[in-house]
Amino acid sequence: MTQDEMKKAVAEAALEYVKSGTIVGVGTGSTANMFIDALAGMKDDILGTVASSEATASRLEGHGVPVLSLNDALKQVDSLSVYIDGADEFDAGRNLTKGGGGALTREKIVAAASDQFICIVDQTKQVKHLGAYPLPVEVIPMAEELLMIEAKKLGGSPILREGFTTDNGNIIIDVHGLVITDPRGLEDHLNSIPGVVTNGIFSHQGADIVLMATPEGVVTL
Ligand SMILES: O=C[C@H](O)[C@H](O)[C@H](O)COP(=O)(O)O
């Protein structure tokens, strides 16, 4: 089974968590794209979606799936029923790193507004410690050098994502070389640096359920 076939299988398995008549939070990335394609078949059953990026909104709209802003959605309901998204890495505690596509901030906001986060991954994303995948940090441009200095103090090697601007008009600094043994502590520490919008550790907004595709089938963790 190819990695793309595994992504498709896990994306389709996530449909089980989509409840009729609810608003669904939708993530960003290649796995989330496959979920969007599968969700299109349920577009008449759900009340709508909230997208975690402009790219996701465009793909949903291309399928004719209704997209609401988060603010409009939360005027209708207290919370979204479910948030479904991929990840770059996950650990045994269902802590995640995300943001390989640069959508981390909106993803974290939509996840926080949802009752349940179902993370859809293939088995290549499973790690003992987060950090082998460079950790993205979204930063207001003025704080670029400040974040570089602080990341080096943590033992990381920060690299500006050249030519990339987030949907929020900010920059991303990818921090290489971290071995993250305390995901929640590092998430909080990085977010306490002025100018940081958020970082790609999802510990506070970790997954409630990880659906992991393997060549033998989809496993629920
Ligand atoms: O910003 C991007 C997101 O956090 C993605 O969910 C993450 O990078 C995983 O993407 P993919 O499913 O393409 O591996």
UniProtKB/TrEMBL annotation:
Family note: Belongs to the ribose 5-phosphate isomerase family.
One cellular component (GO) term of this entry: cytosol
Primary gene name: rpiA
Name of the protein in question: Ribose-5-phosphate isomerase A
Subunit relationships: Homodimer.
Assigned EC number: 5.3.1.6
Known function: Catalyzes the reversible conversion of ribose-5-phosphate to ribulose 5-phosphate.
A biological process from GO: D-ribose metabolic process
Residues bound to substrate: T28, G29, S30, T31, D85, G86, A87, D88, K98, G99, G100, G101, K125
